[in-house]
Design goal:
The protein is 70% helix and 0% strand. The chain has 226 residues and is an all-alpha fold. The longest helix has 33 residues.
Length: 226
């Protein structure tokens, strides 16, 4: 029997939302349209001139219902791209990872902090990937989709609170990021790196702040002088 008090509500909700987006797109035959219009394209944010000069490489610019490539559009895409997956295999492995580590991370730092770190890690992952893709590798016209960046942030939470084995995963991602730069592996390893680092840093900052607040509260209870 499921104990609702220990159920990781945020993790379950995020999994359900990702599945919902994928199922709706598949059943309504709008899956390709959703990817094209709501996936994140680094050059749309970091290299606007490239977008204007090579319209044919942008499938999402071809239809009248496509979003415009402005600041608001880029912000929407940064968020929406986290809930879009290319295939059943893609979504299965991402959500399996989230289900495996999400509950532990959520219970460790609290649902509120967990949700904040999840979304900020996803955004940081996309931005980190975008900067490298646009300015280093020249591949900023490639659509970025998937929850793996945000999920990497969840793994970063686990690392920050003491799971040292998670850092071995980071090393693997760094190695594959270099391998992927000279091969055609269709996985955004740099997004994983950015998301993980964001998760670690944000968790340490939030936990440190929580400990400071608790310490201050204890001092006040003890009648400390300020």
């Amino acid at each position: 029997m499921v104990n609702l008090r220990t159920l990781p509500v945020a993790t379950v909700s995020l999994i359900a939302l990702n599945v919902l987006v994928f199922v709706v797109g598949s059943l309504t035959d709008t899956h390709t349209w959703i990817i094209a219009n709501f996936g994140f394209v680094p050059d749309s944010l970091f290299d606007r001139n490239s977008v204007d000069s090579s319209l044919q490489s942008y499938t999402f610019r071809s239809g009248p219902t496509s979003l415009e490539n402005g600041a608001i559009s880029s912000l929407i895409r940064l968020l929406s791209s986290m809930f879009i997956h290319a295939s059943v295999t893609h979504i299965f492995f991402n959500l399996a990872a989230l289900a495996y580590i999400g509950g532990y991370s959520e219970r460790s730092i609290g649902t509120g902090r967990y949700v904040v770190i999840y979304f900020l890690s996803g955004i940081c992952a996309a931005l980190f990937y975008g900067v490298i893709a646009s300015y280093v590798w020249g591949s900023g016209q490639t659509l970025l989709i998937g929850a793996s960046g945000a999920i990497s942030g969840v793994l970063g939470i686990a690392a920050a609170i003491g799971n040292r084995r998670a850092y071995y995963w980071l090393i693997i991602q760094i190695v594959f990021a270099f391998v992927g730069s000279v091969t055609s592996i269709p996985i955004a390893f740099t997004a994983h790196i950015g998301g993980f680092l964001a998760g670690v840093i944000l968790t340490k900052l939030m936990v440190k702040r929580k400990l400071f607040q608790r310490r201050e509260a204890n001092r006040m209870d003890e009648g400390g002088v300020y």
